Amino acid sequence: MHPLLRLKTYYLIFFFYRIILLVSSIIAIILFYARAPFSSVMGFKLLMLGLIFIILQETKYRQELTFYQNFGISKTMLFLISFIFDVITTLIIYLTFFLFDS
User: Fold this and answer.
1) For residues 71 and 9, what is the distance between their CA atoms, to the nearest angstrom?
2) Where are the transmembrane segments (predicted)?
3) How many CA atoms lie within 13 A of 3 on its CB side?
4) Contact 48, 24 (CB under 8 A)
5) pTM
6) Distance between CA atoms of 84 and 80, rounded to whole angstroms?
7) Alpha carbon separation from 15 to 8, 9, 33, 39, 76 (Å, rounded)
8) What are the residue ranges spanned by the domains of the chain?
9) How confident is the model at residue 78, as a pLDDT?
């Protein structure tokens, strides 16, 4: 079965994303409070996720990426689906923030 069709894949990717979740949410709240446009926030988060990818490639955390590859999750899939989780989380924060801001 293809790794994208297994629920375990999404659980493992969310396990990876939970490390980023708190920092990402705080950054989104701060930027939305400063009235930054949604596209700017998403661009900043994409840049942040790219830096995390580079840090994981170049440091001792490379073994953590090997853990996910052993389950059939490529680095590209891991970061792409993590970004999709980040977009969903940021969208929820965006809608919540501007719903209660008005």
Assistant:
1) 8
2) 12-32, 38-56, 77-100
3) 17
4) yes
5) 0.81
6) 6
7) 10, 10, 28, 26, 16
8) 3-101
9) 85
